[in-house]
Amino acid sequence: MAGKSDSARRSHTKKSKSKGAKDSATAAQKAPPKAEATEASVSEPPPAKPAAMKTKFCLNCQKDLTRNIRITCAECKSQPPFELCVECFAVGIELGEHKKNHKYTVSDCLAFPIVYEPPTAESATSTPAAIGTNAAAFPTTSNDTSNAVWTADEELLLLEGIEMFGMGNWKDIAEHVVTKSDKKCEKHYLTAYLGWKDLMPRFIGDDIEENKDEENKSDKQLSTEDKAAEMNAASDNVVRGAPGERNGPSQLAGYMPLRGDFDVEYDNEAEMILADMEFSEGDHPAERELKLKVIQIYNQKLEKRMQRKKFVVERGLLDYKLHQHTERKRPKEERELLAQVRPFARFQTPEDHDNFVEGLITAMRLKKQILLLQEYRKNGVKTLAEAELYDAEKKKRELDQAIQKQRDSASYLYESGRTTSSRDRANRWQNREQGGSSDASGESSRTRGSSAGALNAIAATFSIEGTPGCHLLTPKEKELCSKLKLLPKHYLVIKDALVRECYRLGYLTKKMAKETAQIDVNTTGHVYDFFVKCGWVKSERYVLLL
Q1: H-type helices in 315-462, by residue range?
Q2: Distance between CA 380 and CA 365 in Å, rounded?
Q3: How far apart are CA 238 and CA 190, in angstroms?
Q4: pLDDT per residue over 246-263, tens digit each?
Q5: Cβ atoms within 10 Å of 21's Cβ, excluding its own
Q6: Per-domain residue ranges for the chain?
Q7: In the CATH scheme, what is the code of domain 409-545?
Q8: Is the CB of residue 360 less than 8 Å from the CB of residue 352?
Q9: pTM of full prediction above 0.85
């Protein structure tokens, strides 16, 4: 049935064509001499209307492939092209000169042209291709039509890209289409979609008026060429952009270089004051004056917006990565200086601002060098060799101080119960120098098992006088810190934590105090008993009695 319908369709098409040829010949004989002169004056033949897409069949199983995926051999040059369905291609069908190892292309249901371009001089002089192929819809001057063909899926991608990126961003649109360059995308859209007189595209299979005078066709062709030239010139101006702008894509997110706009402008809500404003004949003069004042304020906001936009473009601030890379190379002091003088850039030209900044940086470097030389002279350094030695010793001394400070703070915060710190070793050395008085006290404490004797022995060798925070303690607190070998600043931190916890809960047990302080268990117990005795912390027994 498919073969009969196809043969009947072809015979009907041939009859229609022969009848049309006879009618055109008869009309040519009856035409007046003026029409013949007009026809002779037109050197370009009328473009042929591209035919609708021809029905495709698999050459092996005769399956209809018009709207299905088909495999086309790229090496067989036969007409019609050697096309197979996916099933026949999968089993490796070989017919005639076609072999299963030939190169091939895959055509899906959208791999056919749907839009054709208006007639031009190039397309008129090209050789017509077979009906139903892509070359028939897109005549070109060369034999290679792979770059000139626009399939349906490419047309969809082109329109989607224009909708997403905007008219003029042809590089982004070409990346969206993938198979076409930016120049081809621009040329195809301006020609196939905007190249017609009514600015509407022509689709393959649509009814187009063919019985027009040659004069109208020539006028239409001339107007189309003029419009295409104007559109190309305007597009070139848009692509080139304003002077001072970078040709490549902007590095600043939210900026569109081809349009010169930001996604979020300065004072982005400025248009809201005009959104609901209307002028009517019945407006009171005061109300009309108020509306004009609002418009004046809006114009001032627009001027400020344009000034800031011009400032950003002229100063090259769009390429923020370049500025970041340059600023990273500068020392911290110079970066802070640049940040401080940056607001003054809008009051100066780029050259004046650069000279101003360089002058400040030079002055800062000279001042820093003078201070360094004064330090050398103050410490008796007179030669460069002595200066290098002084700098090395200074760095070493600063490093040792930082390490010692870190050790002191870490010994309290994390491992305060250790007895191997530098302070403990110094105290043991003092005990040995004093003739073993502390050893005797320690021996008696071990034999008696009394903790009070041990605390007294430790207090005899540990003094908190002159330490930070000592003046904030009472005599009893100083005695406790000496016995527990606890610095005043550490004791004050523990005191603050325990008192706050007791105030929050209403009471505090010894176990809760140990969890809060997180120091040596024995030290926490002595501190807790001292606080309970002084009445600063309420124990659980006191709460139960109440």
Answers
A1: 320-328, 332-341, 350-378, 384-413, 422-433, 437-448, 451-461
A2: 23
A3: 14
A4: 444 444 557 777 777 777
A5: 10
A6: 49-240, 330-372, 409-545
A7: 1.10.10.10
A8: no
A9: no
